[in-house]
Amino acid sequence: MSSVVSARGLNLTFQTSDGPVHALKNVNLEIEKGDFVSFIGPSGCGKTTFLRCIAALEQPTGGSLSVNGMTPDEARRNRAYGYVFQAAGLYPWRTIARNIKLPLEIMGYTREEQEDRVRKVLDLVDLAGFGGKYPWQLSGGMQQRASIARALAFDADILLMDEPFGALDEIVRDHLNEQLLALWARTGKTIGFVTHSIPEAVYLSTRIVVMSPRPGRITDVIESPLPRERPLGIRDSKAFIEVAHRVREGLRAGHSDD
User: Fold this and answer.
1) Chain segment 229-256, per-residue pLDDT in tens
2) What residues have CB less than 8 Å from 180, skipping those under 6 apart?
């Protein structure tokens, strides 16, 4: 099976007035089709930077990175991925439906295609009937679901998500975690997901990539033993607790390497 994302010896150094900042160092990772891969680590460890490299929003300074067998730049032009940011980033003067239509308008889809896709993705994120609302009329959790719908609208194979639920309270976050797993099961997308939360990473992922403080390195890649069907109650299981413990150990080990 060919990898959807392949990073080999990836490095990224930012030049600043205080000298070079080594954001990523010798990152090697393969993400397969249909994987749900979470990136976890302390602030400044390079997890968001790595996601931004996949999306061609940052340029690596060494090593190689391919997305769907192309350079990240080619993958961006081929619309290989949708990107969900930490803030929903919805335009307040556009309805939810028109926010979702925005990338479709830019890509030149016909009005009929736009309407059809908006209807489908609103249904996928359980927001059917809310297309005519404005962002300020929706809760924070609903706004994030609308943001996910916008990223899904042009049906890219890969969904990149940068701490999309980080600002939400725990009850809403749990609910959205459940909905995201259901969405992943229905669509078969490949998902790259950045989080600071160990329970969230363990609950959602088929693989968890643990990263060290700067310079960002991968200290562990954990294959989840959990079944793909995961009720929230699985978080009390022995298998879940063991994986969470290994993530915690990986984070600790990364700190002790400094």
Assistant:
1) 899 899 999 999 999 999 999 888 766 5
2) 148, 204
Q: What is the 3-state secondary structure (H, E, C) of 24-69?
A: EEEEEEEECCCCEEEEECCCCCCHHHHHHHHCCCCCCCEEEEEECC
Q: Could you read off the pLDDT of 198-207 as tens digits, one per residue? A: 999 999 999 9
Task: Tell me the CA distances in angstroms from 9 to 38, 47, 67, one per residue in order.
Answer: 20, 15, 15
Q: Which of 35-39, 196-200, 211-215 has the lowest mean pLDDT?
A: 211-215
Q: Pick from 167, 168, 153: which is nearest to 120 by CA? A: 153
Compute the half-sphere exposure of residue 22: CA atoms within 13 Å on the CB side of its CA: 12
Q: Are the C-beta atoms of residues 146 and 97 closer than 8 Å to each other? A: no
Domains and CATH numbers, the chain: 1-80+157-168+179-258 (3.40.50.300), 90-155 (no CATH)
Do residues 176 and 182 lie in contact, with contact meaning Cβ atoms separated by under 8 Å?
Answer: no
Strand pairing category for 158-162 and 190-195: parallel
Whether the upstream peptide bond of residue 215 has omega within 30° of 0, thus cis, is yes
Q: Which residues are within 8 A (CB) of 78 and not within 5 positions of it... i.e. 6 or more apart?
A: 68, 70
